[in-house]
């Protein structure tokens, strides 16, 4: 299987990354560029493009477009994440290639079809951003390419499903805004069922408590104490007195007195380190506790190392870096083959 | 038009969010989903007591277990079989179904299926080609594999919380359990991958898909950057490392906001023109990064007097990437969303018609049709047991009497018998 990908919104590249992991030959077409990438851009390029064949073509001109069409004609699947206006220019409905997949910010039709949409814009318009952050401050975007990569996952699975289908589609369309809306939690449902708007509530989830982020001695921990775990939390922190406290005597009471409960827990956990919270909370009291690990801690985490999660990539000038490997793997997990990164102009 | 996964049958043991989302997506693409449920719980809800849920009009009515909006959102296009997997007969029926299916998917804790005697070896014994997808929080191996995992507490273990907030010392989570929707879509991709591989090799497989690893994958470039530079990416609130200015700015009204991003000098020039900001000193992205605080003040002063929806249109028409921070009703009423008929109206005799999120994928430019409302508890008990396993009506009645299958939560059933 040969997959061709081009465009500039990261979603096609994430889909291509999945096809590369699946074992397809993936050809990435970049637009020529003279600018030097900063650290963030280079990191993104390493993460998304390692393992692919690369070629730089200016497909905005006739000659380049002809070359792109020839490459597409040799491909099983062609994935593009351009704006619809560029897809119009390259005559997308008649573009060569087995299965054509477009990933656009707002879809191929509708009043916003030609609007520009980056991750933070799509998170906001899709209903994610409004509920994240401090209620007394601006909402927060997630510092990641969520809409892009999730749309890439939809593109990958749709194209692969179509490829193995008895009746493959010629064209698949993925909307990134609709991707975000598809992955909503209880925002639109809260409105359609009860005409209530879910608002930002800091780190709380709003339906049961204590479910929030708490300071500890060396960082933060997250507790997800649904009612089943309440007694074990009390046992862990040695505060049997809270079992007798009317303010916390039921699920409803704990929710109603969340501020008071948080004051107590924030004070209690200052005596613990993140590691102690995990050891005591998870291993002894079987509680859903998570520690706010730094990237360095995650990179050196014993659990992930034991699972052979990281994949080594040799980056010229930098040596080996560890990159997330496949997000799903056959059991038992084994070491993943190292890869070689090639920059955009080495294709 | 046939959907691409037509002919693929999936046994769905998942609950809460990540797993049901995965099978909803697979069902949207045409797979036949057989949802196996215990009679005592749907999602996290203990059905023996009517606790607050998201019911239409806030009213649980008599069949509260069939009326929860979240459950109905996540479980459309599925058939429902209520089966007691703790009984020997329930296990035997389950393994008979495994023999008739292509995929088994579950998101229990790592050891739950083995404790039930239904681990991969048992499933493979019933169907050598079975694809088995497990979605434990931290995987089926490794020192943390038995950690208790819910999406919200897994999220900080991915590094996301360390990067997210207003400042280094003021950290935030998404407060929604982001590993769940990530793992859900990753799991759907995993199933399709395994189906494609089986077509080539005729082999099934056991796939492991931890919530933690799925989310780390979506942060991949951050991990690369941390190693290249020797330090973690800064906590950047709503700013970008490449674009400037970029931020979330206040608009007229209470808690009204707009996202604006300027990926290049041209878009910045257009924004400056509309906002009446003198461009001198801000011509380059480096200068705009350096003076971001001052720029944000001027942009905010302008946006504060604007309607977020009108400004979004004005800026986009001028080529400036912008988007209103939508509340839920604004998402539903957005002109683009309505023009593309994204939301799907579904209802039944037990639940009022309501719009539910659709799918972001169109095959050959067509919206999927034939949406089926989520099954009521045990709605397809007879159909599945009769059509797939050849059981007689008498056998099915006996299974119901013995509590192996059910259509009502236990206490409701007992009350009605009395």
From TrEMBL, chain A:
GO terms for molecular function: CoA-transferase activity. Transmembrane segments: none annotated. The keyword Nuclease does not apply. The keyword Transferase applies. Keywords: Transferase. The lineage of its organism: Bacteria, Pseudomonadati, Pseudomonadota, Gammaproteobacteria, OMG group. This is CoA transferase. It holds the Pfam family CoA_transf_3.
């Amino acid at each position: 299987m040969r997959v061709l990908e081009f465009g500039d919104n990261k979603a096609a590249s994430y889909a291509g990354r999945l096809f590369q992991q699946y074992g397809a030959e993936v050809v990435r077409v970049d637009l020529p560029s003279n600018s030097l990438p900063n650290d963030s851009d280079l990191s993104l390029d390493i993460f998304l493009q390692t393992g692919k064949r690369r070629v730089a073509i200016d497909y905005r001109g006739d000659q380049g477009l002809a070359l792109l069409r020839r490459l597409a004609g040799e491909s099983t699947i062609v994935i593009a994440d351009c704006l619809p206006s560029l897809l119009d220019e390259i005559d997308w409905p008649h573009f060569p290639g087995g299965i054509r997949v477009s990933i656009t910010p707002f879809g191929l039709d509708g009043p916003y079809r030609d609007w520009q949409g980056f991750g933070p814009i799509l998170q906001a318009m899709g209903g994610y951003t409004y509920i994240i952050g401090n209620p007394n401050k601006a909402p927060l975007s997630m510092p990641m390419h969520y809409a892009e990569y999730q749309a890439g996952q939809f593109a990958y699975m749709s194209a692969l499903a179509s490829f193995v289908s008895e009746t493959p589609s010629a064209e698949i369309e993925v909307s990134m805004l609709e991707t975000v809306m598809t992955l909503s939690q209880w925002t639109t449902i809260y409105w359609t069922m009860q005409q209530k708007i879910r608002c930002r509530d800091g780190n709380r989830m709003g339906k049961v408590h204590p479910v929030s982020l708490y300071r500890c001695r060396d960082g933060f921990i997250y507790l997800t104490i649904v009612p089943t775990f309440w007694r074990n939390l009390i046992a862990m922190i040695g505060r049997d007195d809270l079992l007798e406290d009317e303010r916390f005597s039921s699920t409803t009471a704990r929710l109603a007195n969340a501020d008071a409960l948080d004051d107590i827990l924030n004070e209690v956990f200052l005596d613990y380190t993140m590691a102690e919270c995990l050891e005591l909370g998870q291993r002894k009291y079987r509680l859903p506790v998570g520690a706010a690990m730094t990237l360095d801690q995650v990179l050196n985490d014993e659990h992930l190392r034991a699972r052979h999660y990281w994949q080594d990539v040799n980056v010229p000038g930098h040596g080996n870096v560890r990159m997330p490997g496949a997000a799903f793997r056959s059991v038992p997990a084994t070491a993943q083959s190292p890869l070689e990164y090639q920059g955009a102009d080495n294709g | 038009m046939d959907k691409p996964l037509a002919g693929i049958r999936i046994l769905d043991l998942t609950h809460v969010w990540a797993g049901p989302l995965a099978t909803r997506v697979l069902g949207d693409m045409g797979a036949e989903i057989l949802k196996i449920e215990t009679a005592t719980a749907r999602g996290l809800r203990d059905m023996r007591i009517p606790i607050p849920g998201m019911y239409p009009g806030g009213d649980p009515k008599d069949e509260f277990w069939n009326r929860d909006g979240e459950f109905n959102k996540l479980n459309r296009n599925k058939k429902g079989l209520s089966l007691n997997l703790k009984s020997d007969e329930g296990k035997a029926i389950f393994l008979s179904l495994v023999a008739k299916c292509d995929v088994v998917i579950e998101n229990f804790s790592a050891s739950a299926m083995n404790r039930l005697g239904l681990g991969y070896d048992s499933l493979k014994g019933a169907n050598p080609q079975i694809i088995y997808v497990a979605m434990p929080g931290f995987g089926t191996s490794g020192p943390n594999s038995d950690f208790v995992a819910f999406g919200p507490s897994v999220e900080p273990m991915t590094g996301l919380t360390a990067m997210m907030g207003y400042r280094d010392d003021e950290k935030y989570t998404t407060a929604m359990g982001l590993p769940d929707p990530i793992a859900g879509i990753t799991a759907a991709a995993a199933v399709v991958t395994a189906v494609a591989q089986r077509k080539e090799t005729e082999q099934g497989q056991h796939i492991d898909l931890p919530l933690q690893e799925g989310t780390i994958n979506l942060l991949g470039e951050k991990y690369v950057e941390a190693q290249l530079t020797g330090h973690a990416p800064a906590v950047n609130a709503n700013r970008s490392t490449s674009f400037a200015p970029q931020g979330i700015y206040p608009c007229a009204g209470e808690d009204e906001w707009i996202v604006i991003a300027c990926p290049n000098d041209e878009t910045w020039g257009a924004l400056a023109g509309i906002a009446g900001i003198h461009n001198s000193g801000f011509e380059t992205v480096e200068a705009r990064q350096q003076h971001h605080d001052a720029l944000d003040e001027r942009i905010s002063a302008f946006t504060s007097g604007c309607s977020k929806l009108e400004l979004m249109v004005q800026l986009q028409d001028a080529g400036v990437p912008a988007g209103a921070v939508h509340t839920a009703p604004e998402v539903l009423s957005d002109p683009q969303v309505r023009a593309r008929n994204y939301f799907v109206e579904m209802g039944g005799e037990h639940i009022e018609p309501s719009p539910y999120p659709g799918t972001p994928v169109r095959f050959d430019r067509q919206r999927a049709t034939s949406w089926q409302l989520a099954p009521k508890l045990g709605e397809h008990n007879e159909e599945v047991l009769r059509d797939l396993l050849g059981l007689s009506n008498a056998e099915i009645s006996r299974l119901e009497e013995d509590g192996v299958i059910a259509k009502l939560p236990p206490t409701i059933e007992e009350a009605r018998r009395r």
